[in-house]
C-alpha cells in the first residue's frame, strides 16, 4: 500500500547540511495501522511528509497505492494526493470556514456536485459525532473536536490511506484515547490503512499493529508491536520498559531477585501459584505491569523468591525452561 | 461660514470622495495581484521565481520611497497621456493610484504571510491546485487583515488627495489652500479639517467593523454565528 525504499533527505540550511533521514525503507500493508516511533528531531515529520511528497526525498523511491509518486507529473501527483488523507498535530483547519465548509473542501477539490457534497459532509460529521457543530467555526471547538473535524475532512474523499502527523500530541490523555479509538474504528470498519508517527509509546500500544523505531534519521527496528514488546532486548521493549526503579540492592529478604517477561500464553498462566505449589517457594512482588496490547497481553514482573536454596534454584530452572526469565535476570542469577 | 462657502465645502467633499473612491478601487485591483505575486514568487513560495520577485520588490520599494509631491510632478507625462490634462480631480487620480499601489502590495503581502503555513500545506496535501490554494485558503484566511490594511491605504489616499488638491487637483485640499490659507479664512480651514477628520474616522471605523465581522479566529467572538 505504501512502500518507501532507501529514502534519504538532506536539508540545506545556509551552508550547513542537515541529514534528516538516512536510507529509510518501510512497507505498510493494506488495512494495517503502522506506527513510526521516535524522539523529537528523529525525522518523523520528514518521513511522513515524504509519503505524499510535501517533502521530496533527496534519494529513494516512494510507492503509494501502486503509483511511483516521484515519477508523476504535477497534475498526476495532485490527483494521487486526493487518495491520501492527512491529519496534523495542530489540526490545520481553515479558521475562516465553518466546520461543514472545512469538511466540504476536499470534495470541492475532487469536483463533486453540490448536492453530493452536502450529503457526504452530513454523513462524515455524524461519523465523527459532530453533527451539531456543522455551522460553527473551528476556533470555538475543543482540541479533540478540532481533530475530529480534521479526521472527517481527511476522510471525505474516501481515501484508502490516512497519514497522521502526531495527531494526538497536543491533546490531553482522555481526548487522546477517544481520538485513537475513533481511528481504530475507522481502520476496522472502512479497512483504512493508517500510517502514523508519534513520540508516544501509548499511541503505539493503543492502536498500532506494526511499528518502526526511528532514531536520528535511521530506522533501527521494524516489526509487529506485540512481538517486539514480548522480546526483551528489542528497541521497543527497551523504550517501553525502562529499567525497574527497584534497584539491584533492593533484595530485602535475602532471596533471589527474578525478572519475568510475560507475553503470549505465559501471560494467562498462573505462574506464581504454580511456583508456590510445585517448589514450596514464596514470591514477593516488587514491581511490574501487565497490559493489553491489541489482542494480546504483555508485561513484566519483578519479584523476590524466598525458600530453601534448593527449592529456589529448582524454581529458577523451571522458569528458564519455560522461557520466562529475561536474559539479564538469568545473568544475575 | 456663509452659505456659498458651505456649498463649496460640500462640493469639494464630493470631489475628495470621488478621487479617493475611484483611486481605492484601482489600487485594490492592482495591489491585490501584486501582493499575491510577491508572496508566490518568494523563496519557498508556491511559484518560486527569484528574478521576478526581486523586480517586484524593487518596484515596490522605489514606489514607496518617493515622496508623493515629487511623484506627482514626475509622472505628469503619464497623467497627460492617460487623462489628457494634468489639472482637476480625474487627473489627480493617476498619481494617487501610482503612489498607493506599492503600499497596497505590501499590505496584501503582509496579510498573506500571516496565514499559517500549515493551512497551505493541508490544502496541498488534499490535492488543491495553486489557484484554489490562493482563492479558497490564502485570501479568505487573510481577509480580516486585508480589510484593515485597505482601510489604512484609504486613509493615506485621503491624505494624498488633499495634497494633490493643493496643487490643482480640486477637493478639500484645494479649498483649504485657496480660501483657508491664502485668504486667511480660518473657518474654511477648520471646516476642511473637520471633514477630513470625519472621513478618516469613518474609514477606520468601517475597516475595523468589517474586519472583525470576517474574523473567526477568536473563540469568544460574539459575531461568530452558530
Ligand atoms: N525545513 C527544514 N529545513 C532544515 N532542517 C529541517 C527542516 N525540517 C526539519 N529539519 C531538521 O530535520 C531533522 C528532523 O526533523 P523532523 O521535523 O522530521 O523531526 P521530528 O521527528 O518530526 O521531530 P518532532 O517530534 O520535534 O516534530 C531535525 O534535525 C530538523 O531540525
Ligand atoms: Mg514532527
Question: Which labels suit this protein?
Answer:
heterodimer; A: 333 residues; alpha/beta; Rossmann fold; Alpha-Beta Plaits; 2 domains; six-stranded mixed beta sheet; four-stranded antiparallel beta sheet; elongated; disordered C terminus; B: 226 residues; mainly alpha; MetI-like fold; 9 helices; 81% helix; binds adenosine-5'-triphosphate; binds magnesium ion
What does this structure look like?
The complex is a heterodimer of chains A (about 325) and B (about 230). The relative contact order of chain A is 0.12. Chain A is elongated. Chain A has a 6-stranded mixed beta sheet, sandwiched between helices. Residues about 325-333 of chain A have low confidence and may be disordered. By secondary structure, chain A is of the alpha/beta class. Chain A folds into 2 domains: about 1-240, 3-Layer(aba) Sandwich (Rossmann fold); about 250-330, 2-Layer Sandwich (Alpha-Beta Plaits). In chain A, a hairpin with a 2-residue loop joins β12 and β13. Chain A has helices at about 45-50, 75-80, 100-110, 115-125, 145-155, 175-190, 200-205, 225-230, 235-240, 270-280, 310-320, 325-330, and strands at about 1-15, 15-30, 35-40, 60-65, 65-70, 85-90, 160-165, 195-200, 210-215, 220-225, 255-265, 280-295, 295-305. The longest helix of chain A is centred in the middle third of the chain and has 18 residues, at about 175-190. Chain A contains 12 helices and 13 strands. Chain B is mainly α and about 230 residues long. Chain B is built from 9 helices and no strands. The termini of chain B are far apart. The interface of A and B includes residues 78, 86, 95 and 139 of A. The structure holds adenosine-5'-triphosphate and magnesium ion. Magnesium ion binds near residues 44, 45 and 166 of chain A.
Give the arrangement of secondary structure elements.
The complex is a heterodimer of chains A (about 325) and B (about 230).
Chain A (H helix, E strand, L loop, with lengths): L1 E12 L2 E13 L4 E6 L5 H8 L7 E6 L2 E2 L5 H8 L2 E5 L10 H11 L4 H14 L15 H13 L5 E5 L7 H18 L2 E6 L2 H7 L2 E6 L2 E7 H5 L5 H6 L15 E8 L7 H9 L2 E12 L2 E11 L2 H13 L5 H6 L1
Parallel strand pairs in A: 3-8, 3-9, 6-7, 7-8
Antiparallel strand pairs in A: 1-2, 1-4, 4-5, 9-10, 11-13, 12-13
Helix pairs in contact in A: 3-4, 3-5, 4-5, 5-6
Chain B lengths: L2 H39 L8 H16 L2 H7 L1 H8 L5 H25 L3 H9 L4 H40 L2 H10 L4 H29 L12
Helix pairs in contact in B: 1-2, 1-5, 1-7, 1-8, 2-5, 4-5, 5-7, 6-7, 7-8, 7-9, 8-9
The structure holds adenosine-5'-triphosphate and magnesium ion.
